[in-house]
Amino acid sequence: FSAGVGQMDGRFAEKGEPEKGMLVVKIGGPAYRIGIGGGAASSRVQSSENADLDFDAVQRGDAEMENRMNRLMRACCDLGDKNPIISVHDQGAGGNGNVLKELVEPAGAVYDIRQMQVGDETLSVLEIWGAEFQENNGLLIRPEDREMFEAIAKRENCPVNVMGHVTGDGKVVVHDSRDGSTPVDLPLELVLGKMPQKTFSDYHVEAKLEPL
Fold first, then answer.
1. SS (H, E, C) the chain
2. Residue 160 half-sphere exposure, CB side, CA atoms within 13 Å?
3. Tens-place pLDDT, residues 61-103
4. Which residues touch 48 (CB under 8 Å, ≥6 apart)?
5. Among candidates 125, 123, 122, which has minimal Cα distance to 112?
6. Cα dihedral sign, 119-121-125-127
7. Which residues have CB under 8 Å from 208's CB, separation 6+?
8. Number of C-beta neighbours around residue 114 at 10 A
9. Is the Cβ–Cβ distance between 36 and 130 less than 8 Å?
10. Beta carbons within 8 Å of 178's beta carbon, 6+ residues apart
11. With b meaning 16 or more CB within 10 Å and e meaning fewer, what string describes 173-210?
């Protein structure tokens, strides 16, 4: 059990809304085959026969990269009203497939999956899209702030990947510039839209009972 105390600038307590033309940026560590093995792996008996699955399933931390990313974001917040970060989304379950959808809801965006820095060149597009590698955040910034943001990231030695931009058409489209394919073309309304409310009608039938 542990706990901590911190503070934040009230100006940054709420996320800004995605607007057409904003850049979608990933900061932090590169993609590895992490989380692909499934969360149930932690509940199995570990053995040499399933070691590869265990390695792929368990999320692993990187304290050094976490520190670099924290310094980058702290430096941006210290700029006050000139903070380039419009919105931030921490990466966890679902990896890029979760972060890069929710970050641009409901506006939509277009991405090039090959802009993602990878630590393992054998990763498939599906693995890059779904891997749950740690110490990585998604951000929205304005194009005019890109140079300043990248300069701060270079100073803090924190990797930055500009994945794409907000389109405003309500879809998330992922291109693969390596082979020209489009692995993902998904209307956000289908996965993040409000579920329709179901109405249940209840009625009572009066039972006429007679004494025995």
1. CCCCCCCCCHHHCCCCCCCCCCEEEEEECCECCCCCCCHHHHHCCCCHHHHHHHHHHCCCCCHHHHHHHHHHHHHHHCCHHHCCCCEEEECCCCCHHHHHHHCCCCCCEEEEHHHCCECCCCCCHHHHHHCCCCCEEEEEECHHHHHHHHHHHHHCCCCEEEEEEECCCCEEEEEECCCCEEEEEEEHHHHHCCCCCCCCCCCCCCCCCCCC
2. 21
3. 778 888 999 999 999 999 988 999 999 998 877 888 889 998 9
4. none
5. 125
6. negative
7. none
8. 16
9. yes
10. 114
11. bbbbeeeeeeebebebeeeeeeeeeeeeeeeeeeeeee
Q: What's the residue count for the chain?
A: 212
Q: Which two tokens stand for residue 108?
A: 């939509």
The pTM of the full predicted model, rounded to 2 decimals, is: 0.78
For residue 49, give both structure tokens. 């026969």
- For 113, counting Cβ atoms within 10 Å of its Cβ (0-12 exposed, 13-18 middle, 19+ buried), the class is buried
